[in-house]
Amino acid sequence: WADDLVLLALTKDSLQLMIDELYTFCAEWGLKVNIKKTAVLVFNFTGRKLLESTQLQYGCTPIPSVREYCYLGTCFTISGSLKANQTQLRKKGLRAYFSLKNTIDLSSIAKAAVFKLFDSLILPVVSYGCQVWLTRTELLKCISPDNTKNAREVLNPAVMTTLR
Fold this sequence. Notes:
Strand order of the largest sheet: 1-2
Shape: elongated
Radius of gyration: 21 Å
Number of helices: 6
Strand content: 5-15%
Low-confidence stretches: 150-164
Structural class: mainly alpha
Mean pLDDT: 79
Largest sheet: 2 strands, antiparallel
Number of strands: 4
Helix content: 40-55%
Distance between the termini: 46 Å
């Protein structure tokens, strides 16, 4: 059963409305929200906490505003950058690699087996949450003009017209 929840909104008022609905639902069903694990993170490119983010409440309890929040193993920052998250995953991947290396002499087994071990034990660690790493804008910056034909199949064609 899942007990994690994220509420996303475009405005402070709509977020407060969702929080109020959550409060009512939890009161009706006897559920409790752990305010110690609850926070508001407002994405903005300046990297500064916005005053609006400090004024939200769950019932009568203020919800703290934070600059960084980890959700299901992925760390989000106020600026929307995932660099800190990728650094953390890199460290975890290195630990997994050196653990594997200390357990098995990789030079004594076939390369195909080494690749299979890497794909099974290290790749999942370093690629955890990769579905949210890049925004479309960041992805478009990474795609060369030669790859735009393939990218059109993945991305919204309207977005791809900017690369033509």
